[in-house]
Amino acid sequence: MPPFCVLLKRAVDRGRREVSRCAVYRSASRGLVARRSRSAALLTSLLEYSVVLFSAGSTVSMVAYFTKFSATFLYLFSEWA
C-alpha cells in the first residue's frame, strides 16, 4: 500500500474517532462547548485530509516529472546510439 494511502487511512480513522467522541460529548452536555469541540475535530480532520492529498499530489507530480525525464533521456540516447 502506498505511503499516502496509509496516511489517508490513519487520518480518516482519527477523524471518525474524534467525531464520534465529540458526538457522545454533545449528547451528554448539549452545550455550545460540545458544538465547538465537534467543529474543531472536523476542521482538524479536514486539515489532515488536505495535507495527505497535497503530499499525494506532490508524489504524483514527481513521478510524472521523472517519467518525462526518463523518456527524454531514452529518446536522446536512442538517437545518439
UniProtKB/TrEMBL annotation:
Swiss-Prot/TrEMBL keywords: Membrane, Transmembrane, Transmembrane helix
Domain of life: Bacteria
Entry keyword Transmembrane helix: yes
Segments crossing the lipid bilayer: 40-66
Protein name, as recorded: Uncharacterized protein
